């Protein structure tokens, strides 16, 4: 009994120190939490401003900015968001204090499907992102590289031939340019001349795209994650398994090709270029300018390119075509050989 009392003696001393410490920490956190957010629409408990979620388009946000000012605050579930619309505030965020704001937020789907931000688009701002960007500029998308992309010319030729064969008939430009950019990017990434496996890959991309855009309550109210009413968790796992099955096979083929035949200068695709930096473990060293990429990095970067380079470019081409259809004068200038970029006064 005595020994038990002795053992308990240090306890009051510990409590004497820990209770005020916890109290102080609580006070610090409460004071920090009380720092005011910018103005914004009043929210409901727990869900906050979730009822506004369908208005979070550029038009909806502009409307809210008229009411609450160039910087306003929304709370969607437990997630705090700040919308910036005035030039002064935008300059603060994008220029003067950009190092604080340069990380992108990632939803559960994005983190999972990018192998926990192993790609470039969602990597946090830091040494990996900087080295990865350098690698993109110097190797993957270098001028020399772009010139060697025969595939671009091939695919454009075949699209023009398709249109010519349908002279006098209606052509769905949206579908046509989407399949053009998809074919170009597919060949640039995987180097395959045939379109074997492309349908399977497009199916995987479409599911990724749906999952990236799906509303997941767990992104906003994390403790409701268990509910998963749309069955997103199972779909995420299935989608990533499908991508693994597809790209692992391609990566292995490239490794074997390199082992058997070496790398032929000027005949490499994006997988070859990325494999030149392959290692079991990711490593970045800014002092000697080196980077090592894992298989997950390689897969995630390929996904970035497939997503970043397909719909964006197709939409830009479709937009340019629509502008030209509305303006016969500009169309004439293009037909006379003036570059489209100058004609539409881009930039
Ligand atoms: C008209 C065509 C395109 C448009 C409008 C477009 C638009 C954008 C925008 C707005 C960003 C975000 C930039 C930022 O936050 O600073 C971005 C980033 C990115 N885009 Fe594009 N893009 C286009 C074409 C492409 C192409 C062809 C590729 C790949 C082949 C690509 C790959 C990427 C990647 C990897 C990122 C992330 C870059 C980073 O984290 O630094 N994009 N793009």
Automatic annotation (TrEMBL):
Q: What does the UniProt keyword field contain?
A: Membrane, Transmembrane, Transmembrane helix
SUPFAM superfamilies xref list: Cytochrome P450
Transmembrane region positions? 12-29
Q: What Gene Ontology molecular-function terms does this entry list? A: heme binding; iron ion binding; monooxygenase activity; oxidoreductase activity, acting on paired donors, with incorporation or reduction of molecular oxygen
* Gene3D superfamilies attached to this UniProt entry: Cytochrome P450
Protein name (record):
Ferulate 5-hydroxylase
